[in-house]
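#struct-help
A.M.: can someone run this one for me? Single chain, 186 residues.
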Amino acid sequence: MKTEVHVHGSVFLCKGVRLAQVELALRPWLDYVDADHLADAKSLEREETGIVYDAGERVVSMCWTGEVGRSFHNKLTEACNNLGPLTEYASEVEVTYYPDSGEDEFYQFFVGPSPEAIHEFRRQCVTEDINHMLSRHLGKPEVEQVTALVSKMFDAHTPQKSAADMPAATTTSTVIPLHPRNRHLH
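D.P.: on it. Structure tokens below:
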């Protein structure tokens, strides 16, 4: 059974990363959609750019919709994990599934050069979200108190570096279910 999925985000690459490296990293996704190159991975929606590598800006931009089956999520996870070591810093990729049941599923992939970079980026995202949400209802001192507590909670769960983790950063993507209000709309 096929379901529609939308993948949206930008991943920022290290200096010197070439198109061939990006295509190799994204190979699980490209193979899944039967595309030889990024340019062949067209979105179902004409106005969407698909998967675009901009060498000048050192970014892979994704605005892609397709019909997929059950194994797509694993292939996308693998592709994001492969892309992680090529990144300069952590970024977010949003994934929305639109099954026939009408129960949309929302995920965030955090892609980055290391688990520590992803952890710090997630902290920033959560702190900014909380700050934005609470500033409409509370004063600055109360908001700062809550964001300080959130930061402290993130500190308590900082990924630990070990010698085994140093050579390869293969755990650079995390999937987190989102509340339906956080849906990305164009």
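A.M.: thanks! DSSP finds five helices and six strands in the chain.
D.P.: also worth noting: The first helix runs from residue 19 to 25.
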